[in-house]
Design brief:
The chain is mainly α and 182 residues long. The protein is built from eight helices and no strands. 62% of the residues lie in helices and 0% in strands.
Amino acid sequence: MLVAHFPAGFIVTRFVAKNTSAWLLALGLGASALPDIDLLRFFLVDHRAVLHHAYWTHTPFWWALAALAWFGVIRLLGLRSGVVPGAIIFANLFSHLVLDTVVGGIRWLAPVSDRSFILVTVPARFDWWIWNFLLHWTFLLELGIVACAARMALAGAPCTGAATHRLEAAAHLSARDATREP
């Protein structure tokens, strides 16, 4: 994913916490991009020799352990105020990994297996690698996520609202037309 992680983070955060304060939204947006912190190592240390999805920050197992530790400590200490922030953090971390599974490949079974799961392979047709992703049909998925987040931000409504209303209206018209006599 090139542009969808932050918009997806907005959507996920709004879904997890209906009344989202600015700090919870910032927390969600930060968590939605957190696995890509490994890009620093990718560019600065490894000089792009290792695909950044191979680093631990793109391995669901470690985030699952972190989630278990987070919620375990909250339960032991009785800190109910940590439940919503934790839910926002880990929902966004895992949404990042799910989105990266579409075209990037994620090792969902690590550390048991090193197999990367990828839904769609983007062929290398252009010299500049970004064109390969921008001009591939999967980029429409990213644009849909961006549009959904924009709708939620501007209208304050979930993305399914307009489509649902149109479907209900169409069903109502169809039902009315079916009961009319010719």
